[in-house]
Structures are given as C-alpha cells and as structure tokens.
Amino acid sequence: MQRTLFDKIWDSHVVREIEGGPSVVYIDRHLVHEVTSPQAFAGLDSRGLKVFRPQQTFATCDHNVPTLDQHLPIRDVLSRMQVETLAANAEKHGIHHFGLNNPNQGVVHVMGPEQGVTLPGQTIVCGDSHTSTHGAFGSIAFGIGTSEVEMVLATQCIMQPKPKKMLIEVNGTLGKGVTSKDIILYIISKITAGGGTGYFIEFAGSAIRSLSMEARMTLCNMSIEMGARGGMIAPDQTTFDYVQGRPYAPVGEAWDKALAYWKTLRTDEGAVFDRTCRYEAADIEPMITYGTNPGMGMKITGVVPDGSDLEGNDRKSFDKSLNYMGIQAGKPMLGMPVDYVFVGSCTNGRIEDFRMFASLVRGRKKAEGVTAWLVPGSKRVEKQAVAEGLTDILREAGFEFRQPGCSACLAMNEDKVPAGKYAVSTSNRNFEGRQGPGARTILASPLVAAAAAVTGRITDPREFL
C-alpha cells in the first residue's frame, strides 16, 4: 500500500486506536514556554504527578520577555511571574530549561531546531499554534491547548483525530526578491484563511526543494494560517546537513541509524491525498496583506480587491476589515506611508532573515519617522549577527538590534504598536489588535520590510535588488 509521509510518521506513533474516536499518539518532543504551561504544571501538582518523561521536554521563555535590558528584572509583574514560574517548574521536574540570559534561550520554534531538539520523523507538540514550524524537518508538529499540555506532561501521549491530507506543490524557479514568506502568503491568498481546515499539509515541488531549512520553517510556520493542523516537508540532504552536529542531534552509530531511517521518510509514488493544489513559482511576486487575516494578501504591485465576489457575512467581514485598516478597495498600496517595521518572530527571526534585511539596507539610512524593531529569534541568532557584522551594517543604517523574544509579534510584552499606526511586520498574524490595541498590521517578508524601513512607505524591494 502506498503511503504519504504523514501516514508513515503518524501510523508509527499510534499507541492505541479508540473505536469511533481519536487516536492515542506518542509524542517524541514536548516544547513548553511560560504562557501555556503554568496551569498544566499546576494540574500535575494537584494530582501528585511528575512529568512522565522529563528528558523529552524542553522549556524556554519567549512570549513575555522584554527585548531590551534583559539583565534586569522584568518590570511587568505578570510577565516576571510567568517566567519565574517556568524556571521553578523546570527545576522541580528536571526538564531542560533555556531561561532568560541562557546562551541558548530563544523563541521556542527557533530554539528547538537550532539545538537539534527537532528531528525528522518525530511527533512534536507545544502549547503554541505555530508549532507547525517544526514540520519543515519532516516531522508531525502541531500546537495544543493547556489541558493537552498537561496530558503530554503526564503521559507522553495525546489523543488526536487523524486529519485529512493535502498536497501543495510549487514548481519552477522563484523570481528576484521572492522569498518563502511570499510563497506562503500567496498560497493562503489562494486557499483562504480557512481553506486548509481539517487537513495536514505536505509542501512539495521543485521550488520547495530549493529552499533552505530556514525558509522551509517560515513556510511551515504559517501553514496553520490557512486553517490547517500543520505543514511538513520531506527531509532531504538540506535537512540532514542542517541537523548534523547540533547539540541534541544523534552522533556516531546513532546518527548513521537515524539517517538511514530519515531517508525513508518520503511520500510513496502513487499515494493518495484528500486534496491537491499546484502552483507555479513564476506566478509569485513579493506579497503584502491588506486586511485582518493572513488570507487577505496581494501582490505588492497589485490593487486592493473590491470584494465584489463576496456575499452576506463574508462581505460584511471584508468591509469591516478594510475599515479597521483604513485601506480603500481598488487602490494600490505601493507608496502608502508606514510607521513601524518589525523583523523577527518564529516566522522570520532567524539569521537568514537578518542577512536579507541587512543586504537591502546596507549603505542606506532608516527613513525619518519610522520606528524599527529588529528582534533576533534566539541568543544564537543574536551572537551570529554580531559575528557576521550584520549588527554593524544595521547600526550604520540607523537601526537598533534588540534582544531575543517574541516581541511585537503579539501584544504580550512591552513591544506594542500604538493604535492607528501601520506596521510592516514579518510575523505571522495580522488580526485586529494582534500587535497592540488598534494597531494595523501588514504582513510581509524581510525584504519588503527592509524596503519600507528605508523609504518610509510600502515599496517593492525589487527596486533595490
């Protein structure tokens, strides 16, 4: 029987099938952070339980941490309490903990791959929706709720219904200035923010295979923004080269054994998917969003749709979204003034993203009136940016390189975009108030963000390339 990559990993991790119900699935890696774990650990304590397999649980703080002066106590009382509670729970239960000022601390979905915690063929969960990021390594990775976090801590298993399977192929060669962020924004604009509901997606095709691991992580990170349970890419030599030598990656004979298994992790020819979508790389240009969900995306050179094909509640939602954004249908967005630029998050906070940004702003200056937050996804990214001289380029251009954290991806820390201000953001969501009450978010790639940062307006980055 021909099987998909998803089937191969899922089936090998099913502990028990519940007739007419979900499957009991074994979890290889459990990632936790300070926001969704306190109640789960408290639940264990109330039942007198310990973490069942602490060696498979990895914790870091990211959502609530400040991105300046991390050597000082966190000023926000609630944020400080959450970070301290995570540290106490990690010590009590003997789990790996990358706390604030640890040299390997970072955003959970940046830290995991960096450390080799994320490996092909695994099942990976975290109390965070963007756990789908780790699917870039050929793993089944998805976000879970707090009660499920407690379930995994207590049993190393989770109950889940098996999702349907979708194949998304992108073939051909990407054009100048087109990144993986543009690929995923393009796909979501076609499928819509709910078009992947009920599916687990496998991304394939020559354009996908050409991507670096960091670009693949960006792609899988946003798979849930089309409603999918997660996204994945079959591992290949690019994957193996990235993983080898990482702190928690296997070594010696264990590496050879793991590699032999990983090379079998591909969809069999003739395997059947429940849905298939195919796109040509040549059709994709730099993208931006104009509304309040990631499906409301357009080519940067295009005009805002007028919503004439929508009816009923869909049309009401469309009009409400444009009204919130203060954007007119039928108009281009090129040249529109922006107030903030944010580069970072688990979507685009890796070293490759800052290389892109620095390559465009080199020799230029930040535009007057633009506030820019450049936030590395981890301490390792921060250190590497310094070693490569990227921070010098940024400083000369008038930018400040901050310290690691989720930052302005979501309004859970000090980095909030003020009401009514426009932010070109490399993060993953443009919901109302996502970056601060009343903030207006325009999702984009690091190159589009860089072009906006030096011009103060929505600008096609290809003008600078």
Overall description:
The protein has a five-stranded parallel β-sheet, with helices on both faces. The chain has a four-stranded parallel β-sheet with strand order 11-10-9-12. It has a four-stranded parallel β-sheet with strand order 16-15-17-18, covered by helices on one side. It contains 16 helices and 18 strands. It folds into two domains: 1-285, 2-Layer Sandwich (Aconitase, domain 3), CATH 3.30.499.10; 310-464, Aconitase, domain 3. With 465 residues, the protein is an alpha/beta fold. Helix 2 crosses helix 5, helix 6 (180-191) packs parallel to helix 8 (213-221) and helix 13 (351-361) runs parallel beside helix 16.
